[in-house]
Amino acid sequence: MSSIQIIRDFASPQEGFSRTLRIYTPDGYDPAASDRRYPVLYLHDGQNVFAHPESALYDTWCANHALDSLVREGQLEPWIVVAVDSRDNRLSEYSPWDEPRSHVLARGEPYVRFFVDTLKPFIDSHWLTRQGPAWTGVMGSSMGGLISLYLGWRYPELFGRIGGLSPSVMWSYGRLFHEWTSHTHRWTRIYLDAGVHENIDPVGYWMFYGQATRDFYFHLKNLGYGDHELHLVLDPEGGHNERDWQRRLPEALRWLLR
């Protein structure tokens, strides 16, 4: 059976505090019996990722159930999933750049350095991971989607599979559009989705996710990303919540991780 291990108080020296890790290993993962290597998917907002007694109290993505089913049906090979909990200041921690309209100061760079310099080396040294961008993914929703895209753009040699569910690409006046100006010329697979009419006003201005995600998809297409590298799903009924991300997750995983 698959299992979930929780590591609390995992130090993030780049940020100056500790985080909680939730690590899913698939059925059959047994370092004592096999040296098989597994690809790894990293996820943000870890408390919302798994169906587990110690996850968030309300809806989660139920990623463990989705992966178990996809592997059992032969649609995916087994993956390790590393989910990193967010903290109270998640808007800043997932912000690569300041957002002056909502007075959010960027704390994304220390979080990114934690991912690259501390978290990924730790996982690669303690689990049987298959390394390289084709076998390493990063995914998140909303601001987690933005920081996932940022990680894939900044470190394409590390993260080749990038998932943005309702990604906040309009953040900081659409700064990601202005920074991501060329194809990385690395192995790449990018999944984007949003609700067609999805919009929220959490920080003092309306964020229209359907239009912004569609615009970013065509932005990447114009940079030369092909259909085998880039996929867009626009959900006619999609809202900005865990229930809808849970509903779309199997399709996202099926395309992104195959």
TrEMBL record:
Annotated GO MF terms: hydrolase activity
Name recorded for this polypeptide: Alpha/beta hydrolase-fold protein
Species in which this protein is naturally found: Hyalangium rubrum
Superkingdom classification of source: Bacteria
Keyword Coiled coil included in the entry's annotation: no
Pfam family membership, one: Esterase
This protein's UniProt keywords: Hydrolase
